[in-house]
Amino acid sequence: MIEFNMPSLGADMEAGTLREWLVKPGDKVKRGDIIAIVETQKGLIDIEVFDEGVVNQLLIREDEKVPVGTVMALIANGEKGTGKTLQRLGKETETGKPVEEWQPVIAPHLVKASPLAKRIAAEKNIDLQTVKGTGEGGAITKEDVEKAAAQKAVMNEIKPPATESIRMAVAAAMSKSNREIPHYYLQQKIDMRKALAWLVEANKLRGVKQRLLPVVLLIKAVAKALTAVPELNGYWENGFRHKDEINIGFAISLRSGGVMIPAIHNADKKTLDELMTALNYIIPRARAMKLKSSELSTSTITITSLGEANAELVYGVIYPPQVALVGFGSIIEQPWAEQGMLDVRPVITATLAADHRATDGATGSRLLMYINNYLQKPELL
Amino acid sequence: MNSNDTILITYREALKQAVREALHKDEKVFLMGEDVGRYGGAFAVSKGLLQEFGPERIMDVPLSENGFVGAGIGAALGGMRPIVEIMTVNFSLLAMDQLVNNAATLLHMSGGQLNVPVVIRMSCGTGRQLAAQHSHSWEPLFAHIPGLIVLSAGTHEDARHMLPMALQSADPVIIFEYTAMLNMEKDMPGNTSDFNINKAMVRKPGKDISIITYGAGVYKALDAAAALATMGVEAEVVDLRILRPLDKDTAFESVRKTHRALLVEEAWATVNISAEISACIMENVFYELDLPVQRLGGVEVPMPYAKHLEDASLPQKEDIVERVKKMLQHD
């Protein structure tokens, strides 16, 4: 039996509210199926399953809020194995921990409430599991439910809109980062003349919709550079944990404020066209706050790219538990000295914010050099 | 008499006025029972009536309950409006055959041809230390029997006005009167225009808990409610009055308002009226309940002779107050 857990959709997430089960016991599921919708501070997230099997039991009820790691469902896969078959998103360890250390199953406990209290709770949409009973033997009374309803009403009044809760999520993650991660910063100006020229030619062969943007070159360059400098691809969790997959988290600023960082999986193995497609797929969904769990939680490094007509460079704050963030400013025409000659070139400033616990400046520098080199040979990307 | 006036009256006098009025109003009405004539009634309810109405209408009968209740039923069948007084409820057990097999059943047995408009009064509950054989509360026993109308006069008002209404009934009516209340003096409303024997009555409105009771429980519940009011608890007192057919709606209405119910009566707790009310509440207004329904009934022992034990055997005002406080977790 496989345990399907409340995934961690980022270092800042402590708990999630199950909003909807998309499967029921007896349903067959396969890897990648979306089986639940969970609400977090980042909005409603589609939760995927990473195993194949038959849903055996749903342990969490809809609208129940549970901590990350809580077993939400059991999936029968024909094995008795207790091995860690379910990917614990964002919190993977090298090998399966003994199952006993996992969060215990929270069995729905019996709620003792008066019939009237139950009726009022149903009418006012109050979860009795969250109400403290003050009646006889701890029973929940009408008064208890009405108090809870009043509290809920107050909470709803002061409950920030979705974007504000994203603000809080960003605040929490960034505070944690600044508190825990000793950042070091490097920067490198990169001549984009060749890359942009190559792009102009490459786009001539593509229809309007298929055309590539400079950013895919940047993403690919970073991904390829990481294959050469793997020390910057992974997590810091009681020591550095390297990740084989290069999943680029691409920071997308929301128009209403806040940032979403969906992952582009295996970016090093994707062609530029595939990367462009991935971006086109991911950006509108991020802006609509409608991302899949795997996209939200599996990035191994982050790129923040300011795009056109913006500031010249950006010093990023690492998204924990990652160990590096690559920043790109606007492409700006600048005087450029090369081989004793002065010229004007389109220039982008790449920065690296890296976790000094995991790597040192020399490693970081190598990454920026590789990025630069790849952008000078766009045909290799 | 002004309709807003109240009359200060004893329970005994209220009963007597009721009988007297009935005798005056209708020549077909007569009173029969043990010692009702020359002795003036075991509890002096009919004192002086023999002199006023004569032996044809105030009739002493032999000590044979099944016999004279049967005679009363016969008189009713013959077109009279008899008031049969069974001295106390304790002796009614001897008349059970006539009550169950004739009074309650003849309408059915005759295919609707013979109705039995007899009114049977009996004194009920404890008196002055009358011990195990003379202190019964048999209301649940009678309320069990289809074909009977069973009334319980828990207040002076009902002692005064239930009888004339009962005499209007085409079917047999049992009226329970309460020995312990005979000397009790109370203000009774003078206005009787909205009087009925169909509905239970809210004797005191409240919002925190419904104390549903009848008979000797009514004044105890009202006293308890007054005591609770000083503690900030507003108890509603519902007097069931009609034990068959039960007016459940009034009880339900009260529970809908207070969401809590304590059922109080002197009859032994097992299979009593409260048990029936409790079941009806579950069946009909379960989702209004904020607490389990609770009961205070008579302790299931033969009634002791000793005063303090007799008191301890029945729910008293203090017991009601304590139970309500406990139910409401009132410190």
Task: Describe the overall structure.
- The complex is a heterodimer of chains A (381) and B (331).
- Chain A is an alpha+beta fold.
- Chain A folds into three domains: 2-101, RNA polymerase II/Efflux pump adaptor protein, barrel-sandwich hybrid domain (OB fold (Dihydrolipoamide Acetyltransferase, E2P), Beta Barrel), CATH 2.40.50.100; 115-158, Dihydrolipoamide Transferase, CATH 4.10.320; 170-380, Chloramphenicol acetyltransferase-like domain (Chloramphenicol Acetyltransferase), CATH 3.30.559.10.
- Chain A has eight helices and 19 strands.
- Chain A has helices at 115-124, 142-158, 162-180, 193-204, 214-228, 272-287, 293-297, 361-376; strands spanning 2-5, 15-21, 28-29, 34-40, 43-48, 53-58, 65-67, 71-76, 183-191, 234-236, 240-242, 248-250, 252-253, 259-260, 263-264, 301-305, 324-328, 332-338, 341-355.
- In chain A, strands 9, 12, 15, 16, 17, 18 and 19 form a seven-stranded mixed sheet that branches. Chain A has a four-stranded antiparallel sheet with strand order 1-8-6-3, with no helix packed on it. A four-stranded antiparallel sheet of chain A has the order 5-4-2-7, with no helix packed on it.
- Chain A starts with a strand and ends in a 5-residue tail after the last helix.
- Chain B folds into two domains: 7-189, Thiamin diphosphate (ThDP)-binding fold, Pyr/PP domains (Rossmann fold); 201-327, 3-Layer(aba) Sandwich (Rossmann fold), CATH 3.40.50.920.
- In chain B, helix 1 (11-25) runs parallel beside helix 7 (156-166), helix 3 (65-77) packs parallel to helix 4 and helix 9 (248-258) packs across helix 10 (273-285).
- Classes of the chains: A alpha+beta (381), B alpha/beta (331).
- Chain A binds chain B through residues 114-119, 134-136, 139, 141-143, and chain B through 259, 286-292, 327, 329.
- Chain B: Keywords: Oxidoreductase, Pyruvate, Thiamine pyrophosphate.
- Chain B: This is Pyruvate dehydrogenase.
- Chain B: InterPro entries: THDP-binding (IPR029061), Transketo_C/PFOR_II (IPR009014), Transketolase-like_Pyr-bd (IPR005475), Transketolase_C (IPR033248).
- Chain B: It comes from Niastella vici.
- Chain B: Its cofactor is thiamine diphosphate.
